[in-house]
Write a structure and sequence with these properties.
This protein has a 16-stranded antiparallel beta barrel with strand order 1-2-3-4-5-6-7-8-9-10-11-12-13-14-15-16. It is about 20% helix and about 40% strand. The radius of gyration is 45 Å and the shape is globular. The chain contains six helices and 16 strands. The longest helix is centred in the first third of the chain and has 71 residues. It folds into two domains: about 100 residues, no CATH class; about 280 residues, Beta Barrel (Porin), CATH 2.40.160.10.
């Protein structure tokens, strides 16, 4: 009978087959299955033998299971330790890679933040009654700046006019370094813009009304007017700013009666033989959420006996240009107003005429005033037009490049000019504008018979 039981539960004397990591209770459950055999009437000896044998088998099974379990646990512990080590190594590698990525991002961000890129451009279509009409890619300008550290900065502006150099030019219009010492006083050196009037330092197309710049800012204060030199600037108090520079002078032999001092600007290697001083002060008496008022005073005083790459005019003429200007900007809610007045005096216009015969005025004078209002309803400023403004405007200019002439110059009344400009600036965004205007021209020689002009323009600024 014992053999039968042995064959039933442990065939061919083999141990009970157990799965990996089989619990001990599975082995122990085999022992109660022997009880039916005991109850079937076996002899005590057989029962005792069977019990002993069964007990040995059971103990052997339990020992085998424990051994298997111990071995399995040992293997799993080794595998777990290996996995944990591998995971720790992987996490360390990932942390190192993340650190390198963060370091690279910081370096890249620092390098990017040190550079400033930008620019602006203008395209015009100009039509004249009874005259020529043309499309002009008037200006394309690129800005590049670099912040060396918290107090030294380089700024530059390079301009291409009229699309190619045969009719226009490529010019470094600005290239200067700022040394920010404190709010009250800092240093600027290089090529900057003469700080007279409004437009010369604020000539981007989104900043002025009309397709073309005001003619006072062309013939009286010649925009854009680059000056080479060095000086100081700052804001001693919150309501006052100033600039003052010692710079190269103008080239007086290129002045003339019609364009004033415009031709006297030197584009390269400006002569320092007859230098000048220039500067401005701006006051901000009103600055609120609803209105702002700025008042400006500026001036220029310097010699005109200069030539590119140094030297003097041919022949040399001792002349000094003194120019003074006042300007204002005022915004009130949707309204904006600007105005400029400027007066220039040549100390020795008679000798300029004797030497060069260019009809240069002893005095030149001009002024303009303009006003505009944003008429676009606030309810329309949503979606694609959320930054849009529609600004009809009107401007009156009066300028005379021969306001007073020396005794050896015959005054040309055609140089005493007036114009009324009526138009609109439609800012699709703060940095992109569509312009259209009509200019009604007149002069003292022929009155209002001057041919009127019609201008269209696109302008943009990017940064």
């Amino acid at each position: 009978m014992a053999g039968v039981i042995r064959e039933l539960f442990f065939p061919s004397g083999m141990p009970i087959p157990l799965p990996n990591r089989c619990p001990v209770r599975f082995v122990q459950s085999a022992y109660p299955l022997l009880h039916p055999a005991i109850a079937s009437g076996l002899s005590p000896k057989e029962i005792s033998t069977m019990k002993n044998h069964t007990a040995m088998k059971t103990l052997g099974g339990i020992g085998l299971a424990a051994l298997i379990n111990a071995s399995a646990f040992a293997v799993d512990a080794d595998r777990l330790a290996a996995l944990e080590k591998g995971l720790a190594d992987t996490q360390s590698e990932l942390a190192a890679l993340k650190g390198e990525r963060n370091d690279l991002a910081v370096i890249t961000e620092e390098k990017q933040s040190k550079f400033t890129f930008g620019g602006y451009g203008e395209i015009h279509a100009n039509f004249t009654d009874g005259g020529s009409s043309y499309l002009d890619i008037h200006r394309f300008v690129l800005f590049l700046g670099y912040q060396f550290n918290e107090w030294i900065r380089l700024s530059s502006e390079v301009e291409l006019e009229h699309a190619w150099t045969d009719e226009g030019y490529v010019l470094i219009e600005q290239l200067y370094a700022d040394f920010f010492l404190s709010d009250p006083i800092s240093i600027r050196a290089g090529r900057m813009l003469a700080p007279l009037g409004i437009v010369n330092q604020n000539h981007e197309p989104t900043l002025f009304l009309g397709a073309e710049r005001p003619n006072v800012a062309k013939y009286i204060i010649p925009s854009t007017w680059s000056i080479d030199g060095a000086g100081l600037f700052g804001a001693p108090v919150s309501w006052l700013t100033y600039e003052v520079y010692g710079v190269a002078g103008l080239e007086g032999q290129n002045f003339d009666g019609s364009d004033g001092i415009r031709g006297g600007r030197m584009k390269g290697r400006q002569g320092l033989d007859d230098p000048a001083i220039t500067g401005r002060i701006d006051l901000f008496p009103v600055s609120t959420d609803n209105q702002d008022l700025r008042l400006g005073l500026s001036g220029y005083y310097g010699g005109t006996d200069n030539a590119p790459k140094g030297g003097t005019g041919t022949p040399s003429v001792d002349n000094t240009l003194a120019m003074y200007s006042a300007d204002f900007s005022y915004t009130l809610s949707r309204f904006r107003f600007n105005g400029v007045v400027a007066h220039g005096n040549n100390s020795n216009a008679q000798d300029l005429e004797a030497a060069y015969g260019n009809g240069t005025g002893e005095e030149l004078f001009g002024w303009y005033i303009e006003g505009g209002v944003d008429v676009m309803p606030a309810s329309w400023k949503t979606g694609k037009l959320k930054e849009s403004s529609f600004i009809p405007f009107i401007r009156y200019d009066h300028y005379d490049t021969q306001y007073k002439v020396p005794g050896n110059v015959v005054k040309d009344d055609a140089n005493d000019r007036s114009e009324i400009t009526v138009g609109v600036n439609w800012l699709l965004t703060r940095n992109f504008v569509i312009k259209a205007d009509t200019q009604f021209l007149s002069n003292e020689a022929i009155g209002s018979d001057v041919n009127n002009k019609y201008n269209l323009g696109l302008g943009w600024v990017f940064n």
